[in-house]
Amino acid sequence: MTAPAERRPSRAWIQYAAVVRKEVLQTLRDRRVMFMLVFAPFLQTLVLGFAVNFDVDRVPVVVADQDQSVESRLHLRRLLADGTLRRVGDASSAEGGAAALDRGEAAVEVVIPPRFGADLLAGRPAEVQVVLDGTDPNRSNVAAGAVTRYFGEEAIRRAAERARAAGLAAPARIEVAPRLFYNPGLKSAPYIVPGIAAMLLVVVTTIVTAMGLSREREQGTLEQVAVTPIPATLLLAGKMTPFVFIGFFDVLLLTVAGTWVFGVPLRGNLAVMALATFLYLLSTLGVGLLISTLSSNQQQSFLGGFLFTMPAMLLSGIMTPIDSMPRWMQWITYANPLRYFQQIARANMMKGAGLADVWPEVLALAVFGAVIFGLATARFRKRTG
Q1: What is the mean pLDDT of residues 347-351?
Q2: What's the number of CA atoms in the CB half-sphere (13 Å) around residue 33?
Q3: The CATH fold of domain 59-165
Q4: 369 three-state secondary structure
Q5: pLDDT tens across 230-251, in order?
Q6: What are the backbone angles phi and psi of residue 13, rounded to the nearest 5°?
Q7: What is the residue-wise DSSP string for 222-264?
Q8: Percent of the chain with pLDDT over 70
Q9: CA-CA to 210 of 20 to 30 Å: which in 99, 112, 258, 287?
Q10: The pTM is what?
Q11: What CA–CA distance (Å, rounded) separates 80 from 15?
Q12: Whole-number percent of the chain with pLDDT over 90
């Protein structure tokens, strides 16, 4: 009996492997592209992870203590004790403190009026004025909340003491005992790093894909390959495959950096994250491919990628909550793949969400990926046909 013939790879598989090999070698030889695909996302994650910080503390405060009593000094020490507010100077009048805000030396002015201590000891209403620099709303809200919270609690404590001294029952108090899930320390990094991964991935894959295909068209190599017997769909699959693996590598790299450097928890199933990443890459690579088919040169591709990525990032909910946007703009965010991927990433990493929890977002990414990549493929086949 003759030995059975060895199964040979199909012609399609050989063609696909040849295109993939060519794309891998071409990418590895281009140091600029390798830097943008591999090292730039890691460096940007470190920079953004440390630079983007929503935690507000040590807000510079100038104090205008016009009372100069034991009571005023005592309450100022208590107010500044927790570190939210940092005393950077004193003023003899409210106008002098406001001038410090104008010069940018302080963000908050606390004004203690005359007879503040005497009014407190006599049981009369006492006022404290807080002047805020509204150019930074987040910092101003935190500073105003710190002052209001302290003096509000002090007013309740004094009312209870007066009631006990008069032999009356202390007024009823409602105490709030907050419990923080998923991010007990209220740190910014666990919230922002998953969003940074989504943001950098769309920048890298969309712009690099668009510019890479436009560069090949300018050099004539794309047309040379297009006239070969390789089908356009197979050619496109081979050219996109390396970028898919690079996208997975970038997500893995950013996840490791976020976990080890910034302490971002990793509670979810990695298979769900991998599935979401693949579907997300279909959208980002599809957009890059579509932009390249509509562009005549690399400059147009770069501009087209920039015009897509910037609105997509701003409307994704990564930096600002979607609920705070105008209602008509909230509807636009439903057409943004970044919205769904960053929701999956945050829920998976911080809450340990599985597929049963994020299946609507996964389904949305699948629909977007199929539609966008399908349109880009049809446009590519028409352009190279």
Answers
A1: 88
A2: 21
A3: abc type-2 transporter like fold (3.40.1710)
A4: helix
A5: 777 777 788 888 888 888 888 8
A6: -65, -40
A7: HHHHHTSSS-HHHHHHHHHHHHHHHHHHHHHHHHHHHHHHH--
A8: 90
A9: 258
A10: 0.77
A11: 70
A12: 22
What is the sign, positive or negative, of the torsion defined by CA atoms of 262, 267, 271, 274?
Answer: negative
Give ∠ CA 221-208-345 in degrees, rounded to 5. 145
Separation of first and last alpha carbons in the chain: 48
Which pLDDT value is given to residue 3?
A: 47
Q: Which of the four pLDDT bands, split at 50, 70 and 90, describes residue 5?
A: very low
Q: Calculate mean pLDDT across residues 168-181.
A: 72
Domains of the chain: which residue ranges? 18-52+187-384, 59-165
Q: At what angle do helices 40-51 and 189-219 cross, to 10 degrees?
A: 150
For the stretch 135-155, pLDDT in tens is 888 888 888 888 888 888 888
Residues sharing a CB contact under 8 Å with residue 256, sequence separation 6 or more, in sequence order = none
β partners of residue 86: 60
Predicted local confidence at residue 159, as pLDDT: 79
Query: CB of 90 within 8 A of CB of 62?
Result: yes
Q: Which two tokens stand for residue 289?
A: 């491919």
CA distances from 373 to 5, 111, 240 (A): 39, 61, 11
What angle is formed at CA 367 by the lines to CA 318 and CA 249, rounded to 5 degrees?
A: 55
Tokens of 34: 């390798």
Q: Which amino acid is at 108?
A: V
The edge-to-edge listing of strands for the beta sheet with 85-90 is 85-90, 59-65, 108-112, 129-132
DSSP code per residue over 22-88: HHHHHHHH-HHHHIIIIIHHHHHHHHHHHH-------EEEEEEESS--HHHHHHHHHHTTTSSEEEE
Backbone angles phi, psi at 124, to 5 degrees: -90, 155
Give me the phi and psi of 321, to 5 degrees please.
Answer: -65, 140
Largest CA distance in the chain: 114
pLDDT score at 171: 65
d(CA 313, CA 198): 9
Contact 204, 254 (CB under 8 A): no
Q: Give how far Cα 127 sits from Cα of 5, 114, 118, 147, 240, Å.
A: 96, 10, 12, 12, 67
